[in-house]
Amino acid sequence: MILWHNPRCSKSRQALALIESHGHRPKIRAYLHDAPSEDEIRGVLASLRLAPIGMMRRSEKRFAELGLSAQSEPDTLIAAMAENPILIERPILIVGSRAAIGRPVENLLPLLTD
């Protein structure tokens, strides 16, 4: 169980509290400091069953600065997330081959109760 976590984000802190309240101690990945590779991002996208745009924080200033949009090529979006991890939506919980974005944090419950 791995949590891609930003301790400065209230949703990320809520997610960690929820996970811990279910008796789990996830491995914390401070993804802003330990940026995932493009291959890791692809793997998480497959687990999430999302297109790259679905895992991105489109309201981040950097998204606009890079000229990204929902119409950008998937490989471009993945590269942008690897180079600018602030663009990755958070928190993301990964359990085996499954993953969920904790927005809202209740999205994580199926991974905690199975």
TrEMBL record:
It comes from the Bacteria. It is an enzyme of class 1 (oxidoreductase). InterPro entries: Arsenate_reductase, Arsenate_reductase-like, Thioredoxin-like_sf. Keywords: Oxidoreductase. GO terms for molecular function: arsenate reductase (glutaredoxin) activity. It holds the Pfam family ArsC. SUPFAM superfamilies: Thioredoxin-like (SSF52833). It catalyses: [glutaredoxin]-dithiol + arsenate + glutathione + H(+) = glutathionyl-S-S-[glutaredoxin] + arsenite + H2O. CDD domains: ArsC_ArsC. Belongs to the ArsC family. NCBIfam families: arsC. This is Arsenate reductase.
